[in-house]
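Task: sequence design from structure.
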């Protein structure tokens, strides 16, 4: 097995021999049916479907008709009933049937890098403020705008990458966020003045800010429904990032800093704090930047991330979406019943349906729809809820 993986190679179903099992021969996981079958049973006033081969309510859990019934219930409940939405639900069920495995646990660690980097940089910037005051001369009040610059970048990054990942793809956004953070983290180590350093921190924040929305969405899309609660488990990486930044700062800042009585050369003509005497904060940022690039390298070269099947469906790239699911099954040493024929049976073929994929405008509209009054309004229905 090669050490480095070609990150640009597109997956194909033929790459994963032995993972496909026809739906009629596949024993679906009971956890995959619990959610939808309970809903369909409640809707029709009937007993829920059984996972045994015997028919229940006229359907077998192994037939395309039973699967179609489940999809119809969930698509109606979601409020979206296009071919894309129906096929997306099929993808979710296929991933749930595959279950948790090596692919998801590897992704847990790699997504955790993003959460780790987020808090690592927040802590690192906060620890550099006294050194910036001593070298560049801003007052203790003014130097706090350094963190403001970082937060502006974080806000811009979270807003941009959250939408961009639905347009350019999860995989590109997933890798670019850490790459941008690492490059500008190294660049901060050469900050020429306070304003320039703030600008570099803002650019760094644009990369770091995308980690939480992109990594969280990507991880959730590859999780089986029964394991979706693991998304909150990513928060364990947050304090690790803070600890790493504090330990690195403890090694550099007390050792490579100006004497306490020296002021910035920008505000005094006598003995002052020079760059060569105050390298600790620069070493800190260079080290954190290098660590961020190492995390990017692990993501980009050591792990083959399959593009999100839902994104591929939204772009009309159905064969690649099926191949991605087959790749997950292959990594987990499991089998899957998903095929293009199943997707076409549930959602229709490209020539027979109008909305097989989403336009850029529809993607943006759906993202903005998450903030509609219909979703947020119920939270303020009464004073006690508000």
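Answer:
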């Amino acid at each position: 097995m090669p050490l480095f993986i070609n990150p640009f190679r597109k997956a194909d179903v033929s790459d994963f021999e032995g993972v496909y099992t026809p739906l009629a021969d596949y024993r679906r996981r009971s956890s995959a049916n619990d959610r939808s079958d309970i809903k369909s049973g409640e809707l029709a006033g009937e007993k829920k479907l059984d996972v045994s081969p015997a028919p229940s309510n006229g359907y077998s859990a192994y037939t395309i008709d039973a699967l179609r019934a489940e999809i119809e219930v969930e698509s109606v409940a979601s409020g979206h009933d296009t071919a894309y939405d129906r096929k997306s639900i099929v993808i979710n069920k296929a991933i749930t049937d595959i279950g948790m495995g090596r692919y998801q646990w590897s992704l847990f660690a790699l997504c955790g890098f993003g959460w780790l980097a987020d808090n690592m940089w927040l802590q690192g910037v906060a620890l550099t403020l006294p050194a910036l005051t001593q070298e560049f001369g801003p007052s203790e009040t003014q130097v706090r705008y350094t963190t403001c610059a970082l937060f502006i970048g974080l806000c811009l990054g979270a807003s941009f990458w959250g939408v961009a990942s639905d347009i350019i793809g999860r995989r590109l956004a997933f890798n670019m966020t850490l790459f941008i953070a690492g490059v500008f983290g190294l660049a901060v180590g050469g900050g020429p003045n306070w304003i320039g350093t703030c600008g570099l921190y803002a650019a760094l924040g644009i990369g770091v800010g995308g980690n939480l929305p992109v990594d969280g969405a990507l991880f959730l899309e590859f999780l089986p429904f029964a394991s979706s609660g693991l998304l909150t488990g990513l928060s364990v990486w947050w304090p690790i990032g803070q600890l790493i930044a504090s330990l690195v700062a403890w090694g550099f800042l007390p050792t490579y800093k100006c004497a306490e009585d020296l002021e910035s050369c920008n505000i005094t003509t006598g003995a002052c704090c020079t760059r060569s005497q105050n390298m600790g904060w620069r070493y800190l940022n260079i080290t954190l930047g290098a660590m961020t690039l190492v995390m990017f390298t692990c993501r980009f070269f050591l792990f083959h991330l399959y593009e999100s099947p839902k994104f591929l469906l939204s772009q009309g790239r159905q064969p690649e979406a099926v191949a991605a699911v087959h790749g997950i099954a292959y990594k987990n040493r499991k089998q899957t019943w998903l095929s293009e024929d199943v997707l076409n049976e549930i959602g229709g073929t490209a020539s027979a349906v109008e909305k097989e994929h989403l336009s850029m405008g529809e993607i943006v509209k759906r993202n903005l729809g998450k903030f509609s009054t219909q979703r947020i309004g119920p939270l303020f229905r009464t004073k006690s809820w508000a």
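The chain is about 60% helix and 0% strand.
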